[in-house]
Design a protein that fits this description.
The chain is α/β, with parallel strands linked by helices. Helices cover 32% and strands 23% of the residues. The chain is built from 8 helices and 13 strands. Strands 4-1-5-6-13-12-11-8-9 form a 9-stranded mixed β-sheet, with helices on both faces. It has a two-stranded antiparallel sheet with strand order 2-3. A two-stranded antiparallel sheet has the order 7-10. The protein is globular and about 50 Å long.
Length: 253
């Protein structure tokens, strides 16, 4: 019998251009928890270092996972006390190109934290560039590595279907968030202060963004999210979906 082929999930690497490890050097890095979460869900993570041919790279993977990263810079000045750690320009350009090609190809996309924000911007959405400045009565969203708060899941959403939960607790380490999800996307979860915590595609291919870090939470909801993402990337899944839709249409006639 032929061995089962695992779906390949492209995972772009972050760029350190600030000499955080050794002065004068540029490093590529990513938390290993992302690859482990993909592998637990039955996929194979493939690291994608920034380079010019994003289209060619996306052609060789079954799905794209855009991980957390640094800050996206606002188009207007913010108060002096608000500090930004900008994502390096070459990383932003590369991630944006990967995401554009993946969405055009219709392969599954999962955006986490910065990746969710980039997904919203790719569809013409908007951001809160600093939640404390932009959202009245906002909760604290920078809770450290072990801090969590509750999110309410929208009934009828894909997130509600795959987690089976109306509310659960998530990690929170951000000060930026999505304010408008963009074309073809809907809000699927919010914090109790109204801050958007998850977005998803209204129809078509799997495209989900979450503001928390499911790769390291180790709970049932996070594992269900990764399983659904990897399952959507199974070779032949698109053909199966197309056949199912045609069959349903025939039965309806």
């Amino acid at each position: 019998m032929l061995a089962r082929v695992k779906p390949t999930v492209g995972l772009p690497l972050c760029v350190d251009d600030q000499g955080r490890w050794k002065p004068g050097r540029t490093y590529h890095y990513v938390d290993a928890a992302y690859a482990r979460a993909v592998e637990r869900a039955g996929g194979a993570a493939v690291y994608l270092p920034p380079r010019a041919d994003a289209r060619e790279l996306v052609r060789h993977v079954d799905a794209l996972l855009v991980p957390g990263g640094d800050d996206l810079l606002p188009p207007r000045p913010y108060p002096a006390h608000v500090r930004f750690e900008p994502v390096p320009p070459q990383q932003l350009e590369f991630d944006s190109a990967l995401l554009a090609v993946a969405l055009a190809r219709g392969i599954p996309v999962l955006g986490i934290c910065y990746g969710m924000q980039l997904l919203a911007l790719a569809r013409g959405g908007a951001l809160h560039y600093d939640v404390p400045s932009d959202v009245a009565d906002a909760l604290e969203h920078r809770l450290g590595p072990d801090g969590r708060h509750a999110v309410r899941v929208e009934p009828g959403s894909l997130l509600a279907k795959l987690t089976g939960a109306g509310e659960f607790r998530v990690s929170s380490r951000h000060h930026q968030a999505v304010s408008e999800p963009g074309r073809g996307l809907r809000v699927s979860a919010r914090a109790h202060d109204g801050v958007v915590e998850a977005i998803e595609s209204r129809a078509g291919a799997f495209a989900v963004g979450v503001q928390w870090h499911p790769e390291s939470q180790g709970d049932a909801e996070s594992e269900a999210l990764f399983r659904a993402f990897v399952a959507a990337a199974e070779p032949g899944q698109k053909r199966k979906t197309t056949r199912a839709r045609k069959s349903a249409a025939k039965r309806a006639v």
